[in-house]
Amino acid sequence: MEMPAREGVNKMIPQKGMIKVSDSFERIVHWCLAISCLVLIITGLGMMFRSFNFIGIPFGGMTNLKLVHNFVGLFFIPALFFAILVWWREAGKFKFPDDLEWIKVAGGYLWHVDEVPKTGKYNPGQKAFFWAVAFFGTIMVITGLIMWFPLDLPREFVRWMYPLHALGFLVIFAFFFVHLYLGTIGVPGSAQAMFTGYVTRSWAEKQCPLWLEEMEKSGKLEIYGQNTIHVQH
């Protein structure tokens, strides 16, 4: 009989019976994007609002803060590219009418729902987060590069890049911290997916039941501590 994964001090260490939901490349891309995004948010706040200028102090002043922001932005570009590449197939496509049913009840996050509609590996909320990061992240990259290297572009055109950059900042700022909350205390057990690549079966059954069923039927489900999976019929 398969023993359930132990809870407690070893939560961030995969236990026998846990299910693999992300590989090492996905986790590397995730953390590169997350860390660069966090640094850009912090340094961006320091430059955007005078009341946050104090953020520049540990960097040695506003000039250095801007340099850090710009060069971390260059690191953000490949991280964003690979994130879109990695998650496009599963998180970039809404499936209607199934996803619409989940949206109608907000996934049970905002009010009590007796039964939340089943979803695949990523629910519509996560898909919305993917699109917010992909779309507004791209806007941030384009506008940021034009602001940094205006070249001979019309001054009025370059001027429009600033409010667009600020809009992208506000959207990603909001989604980033909602994602951070849901990935930690909002949905316990989620953080394990991006630290170890594994989650408990109970978590998978609740958060991505259709994906779990599909992987079991195909025989592709990877279980920690087992070389193969025995598909149940």
Distance N terminus to C terminus? 17 Å
Tally of individual helices: 8
Provide the CATH architecture of the largest domain: Up-down Bundle
Q: Strand arrangement, largest sheet?
A: 1-2
SSE order in H/E notation? EHHHHHHEHH
Secondary-structure blueprint:
Blueprint lengths: L18 E2 L3 H25 L13 H30 L6 H7 L19 H25 L6 H32 L4 H5 L2 E2 L1 H7 L1 H10 L15
Antiparallel strand pairs: 1-2
Helix pairs in contact: 1-2, 1-5, 2-4, 4-5, 7-8
Keywords:
61% helix; 2 domains; 2 strands; 233 residues; two-stranded antiparallel ribbon; Fumarate Reductase Cytochrome B subunit; disordered N terminus; mainly alpha
Q: How would you explain this protein's 3D organization?
A:
This protein has 233 residues and is mainly α. It starts with 18 loop residues before the first strand and ends in a 15-residue tail after the last helix. The protein has two domains: 1-21 and 199-233, no CATH class; 24-106 and 113-196, Up-down Bundle (Fumarate Reductase Cytochrome B subunit). It is elongated, with a radius of gyration of 21 Å. A two-stranded antiparallel ribbon has the order 1-2. It is 61% helix and 2% strand. The protein has helices at 24-48, 62-91, 98-104, 124-148, 155-186, 191-195, 201-207, 209-218; strands at residues 19-20, 198-199.
Summarize the structure.
This protein is mostly helical and 233 residues long.
